[in-house]
Amino acid sequence: MSSAYVPGLTVSDFMELKLERRLPLKGKVVVKVGQKVSWNTVVANTLLPGRVELVNVASKLGIAPEEVLQAMRRKEGEAFEKDELLAQSKGLWGFFKSNLYSPITGTLESVSEVSGLAVLRAPASPVEVNAYVNGEIAEVMEDEGVVVRTQGAFLQGIFGIGGESAGEICMFCKSPSEETDINALSREHCGKILIGGSYTTCAFLKKAVECGVKAVVVGGISDRDLKDFLGYDLGVAITGSEQVGLTLILTEGFGRINMAERTFRLLQANSGRWASVSGATQIRAGVIRPEIIIPLSERPERSENAEKAEGVKGLAVGAAVRLIREPHFGELAEVVSLPPEPELIPTGAKVRVAELKLEGGEVMRLPRANLELIEN
Q1: Between residues 341 and 148, the one the model is more confident about
Q2: Which sign, positive or negative, has the C-alpha torsion 292, 296, 301, 304?
Q3: How many CA atoms lie within 13 A of 180 on its CB side?
Q4: Cα separation of 229 and 236, whole Å?
Q5: Which of the residues 172, 190, 221, 233 could staple to 212 if both were Cys, CB 3.0 to 4.6 A apart?
Q6: Which homologous superfamily is 10-15+150-295 in?
Q7: Residue 221 contacts residue 250 (beta carbons within 8 Å)
């Protein structure tokens, strides 16, 4: 029997999370198992080797490669400053000497009497990895990093840009359908994570950067506004390393799309609380979604419907899903039934479908491949 892959999107008011925090190469872990940490606590550090620069000493001094070692004024492993004398030729009868000055600050790594090249190494760059969220250290990976355990609300978006950040959640819009108003933005929003509604613009994001906003979470944005904000077209690689001054998370997609009611209400219920956010996104193999993590000390009170929804796992009757194809793109629905046999759809294909009940009460049957599961 045929089947269809249904991607999942997590929107949960409370769950336990374990987050790996790894160094790019081996270094030193500076925390212990069981230690309480804040989002900005440094948990591990290391040194990234500096860039290498090759200098053709023989060519620059006009000497033979085998004479280079004798011409060097610094030994291998010795440090020097930029523009400091690095090598000097013998000259003629002690006169007319040629000097070579270092183009960088660093150390002399090696010298070759075969090629006449000197290898210079720039100073190492310190790298620190922080905890990212408020929680505790659950595991230490020796010389590599840690696993941070926390609990609280966890929401995933569709797309994002910008790296990791943290701040206080601030409801900037009053409803999921409201657009961000640039005139309402001020310095009072400095350090905040602004929760918008259906849409934002390049102009709003640029002013948000000027105001010191940490992140903007909104339903959608146009691809042109995103390009204008970044200054270039995004490729298909992973996002999250953009240096744009804030983190942007789209909960629904591109265009004017109301933020899902459930997502908006969950963020509204946590207004004023501290949250960690990341805009890192990868939509191909090894999917990475932008995320919002709101640490909580205890599970909030839940409605009967929320308890019922939590008991539904995977694509099953009662599961919450988002429609990801027009003409109902972005709308939420509940699975009413899952017919076991493939059905013929208007395109002529025979696929497995799901019977859905939209939030407005309308019931329809759609291919399961047109759905995105909203996991609790």
Answers
A1: 148
A2: positive
A3: 28
A4: 18
A5: 190
A6: Phosphohistidine domain (3.50.30.10)
A7: yes
Whose CA is closest to 68, among 57, 78, 59? Answer: 57
What secondary structure letter does DSSP report for 230? H
Which tokens hold the place of 186?
A: 């001020």
**What is 52-121's CATH number?**
2.40.50
> What proportion of the chain, given as a percentage, has pLDDT over 90?
70
- pLDDT tens digits, one per residue of 127-175: 999 999 999 999 999 999 999 999 999 999 999 999 999 999 999 999 9
Does residue 305 carry a pLDDT above 80? no
Only one residue has tokens 């900005």, namely 40
Q: Where are the domains of the chain?
A: 10-15+150-295, 52-121, 304-375
Q: What does the chain come to in residues?
A: 376
The residue ranges of DSSP E strands in 255-344, in sequence order, are 274-278, 291-295, 320-323, 332-337, 343-344
State pTM to two decimals.
Answer: 0.81
